[in-house]
Fold:
Amino acid sequence: MSSTTEMSKQETKGSSKGAEVETRQPGAMARPEPPRSGAALITEGGKTQIADSVVAKIAGLAARAIPGVYSMGTGMARRMGQLKTLMPGSTEASTATQGVSVEVGEREAAIDLDIVTWYGQSIVDVTEAVRRNVSGQVEGMTGLRVVESTSRWTTSSWRPTRRTSSSSG
Amino acid sequence: MRREDLAHALADAVVAVPGVARLAPGGAVEVATHFSGGKVTGIRLGDPVEIHIEADRVPLPPIATKVIHAARRVLDAAGEPGEVRVVIDDVATSALERRRR
Structure:
């Protein structure tokens, strides 16, 4: 599916990973689209804003839904997350945003993920599945376009049956 | 119309919208309309009028649209011309899990 899009620098908020991309529909006249203003998500009669924590929660649950994803978050965050699950009253929701950081613009969201997978999983395959699911769920539920989805990987050296708390990385 | 009446009217109209679980206090600093004897959480009568909600279903944009329309009806009836801004501060996790395949 091709479309005419242009990402303005302000949407990526100073991230050096962002890039200007412009594609044209095949057969369209060679007339450049005017740059999109940084207007808020203008619903009829007013403006809508979606909190970062909402996008992070959706992305976190979408990433964890992929079977190849063992856990989320860097070493220290995972230790804290494991301690949190031992405390009474914690649910999946309280760890849903672990390992996820987002920047929500007015039409777009940039999402960074810290993912832990099992040894022997294809990082390429799992990355593709995670990105597709995260983008699909975020875009479908919020209407925001996911423009940057970075996945940083740590591979656990323990096989799933061992399920100990230590891991490499 | 007194501020507190307007805030209560907005709160009642917003909570009645399907998909709105409740009004939300917002982030670290609570959003509320204060008056002698109480407050209405989630509504700030500024410019624009801010309404903070927690949603209990997805997708979100149609819920926001309905909230804006409901708020507009209240504001127009009260003769307030200001703009409306809806902030979705949280989504019920049960709504997200139902949708996951």
